[in-house]
């Protein structure tokens, strides 16, 4: 399989999460709301939900930048937004990489799988991976976001639009930024 030809820089914004686990649905809801906005032509928004394997395969189509939108527990107040730049330098996972479970595909697991798939297909992984995260109040069973996370969704949409404004996502443009990890 050959990677799709690129017609210019492409960005994929992927909403991650399980809508049946309260605030874990943050990424899915943010992606849904983002699709209601007028975005640059080079930006594609998808609701991945819990289908991490599908994200890995979609990335083989050739994206320069990946923006993952997900609930991200880092110990701050619920509703706090983060922009985290993921180090993509590692690329291919070690031979001792854990077995994949299609129902528990964390972003790190997806990126490790992507490295393996790219090595096998000759495709290129994204040059840049950003995570726009939101501190959850609860990821217990239940449908619906908590009030602080629900209030954070429109702020996250604006933040992502700022990141995408000039065609190349830039953490420096973000109004809410945490140091890269």
Low-confidence stretches: 1-6, 91-104, 170-181
Compute the separation of the termini in Å. Answer: 33 Å
Outline the biggest β-sheet.
Answer: 5 strands, mixed
Radius of gyration: 16 Å
Q: Encode the helix/strand succession as letters.
A: EHEHEEHEH
The multimeric state of the shown protein is single chain
- Class by SSE composition: alpha/beta
For the largest beta sheet, what order do the strands appear in spatially? 2-1-3-5-4
Outline? globular
Give the amount of beta strand, in percent.
15-25%
Q: What's the count of strands? A: 5
The overall average pLDDT, rounded, is 79
Compute the number of helices: 4
Helix content: 25-40%
Keywords:
disordered N terminus, 181 residues, alpha/beta, globular, 5 strands, 4 helices
Descriptive notes:
The chain has 181 residues and is α/β, with parallel strands linked by helices. The protein has 4 helices and 5 strands. Strand 1, helix 1 and strand 2 (43-49) form a beta-alpha-beta unit. The longest helix is centred in the last third of the chain and has 18 residues, at 147-164. The radius of gyration is 16 Å and the shape is globular. It starts with 10 loop residues before the first strand and ends in a 17-residue tail after the last helix.
């Amino acid at each position: 399989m050959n990677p799709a030809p690129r017609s210019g820089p492409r960005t994929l914004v992927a909403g991650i999460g399980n809508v049946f686990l309260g605030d874990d649905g943050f990424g899915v809801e943010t992606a849904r709301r983002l699709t209601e906005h007028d975005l640059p032509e080079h930006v594609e928004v998808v609701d991945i939900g819990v289908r991490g394997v599908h994200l890995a395969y979609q990335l083989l189509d050739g994206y320069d930048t990946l923006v993952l939108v997900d609930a991200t527990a880092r110990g701050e107040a619920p509703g706090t937004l983060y922009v985290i730049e993921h180090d993509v330098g590692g690329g291919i996972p070690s031979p001792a990489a854990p077995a994949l479970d299609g129902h528990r595909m964390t972003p790190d697991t997806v990126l490790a799988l992507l490295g393996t798939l790219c090595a096998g297909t000759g495709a290129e992984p994204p040059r840049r991976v950003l995570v726009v995260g939101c501190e959850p109040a609860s990821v217990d069973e239940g449908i619906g976001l908590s009030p602080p996370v629900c209030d954070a969704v429109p702020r996250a949409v604006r933040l992502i639009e700022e990141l995408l404004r000039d065609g190349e996502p830039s953490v420096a443009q973000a109004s809410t930024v945490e140091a890269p990890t």
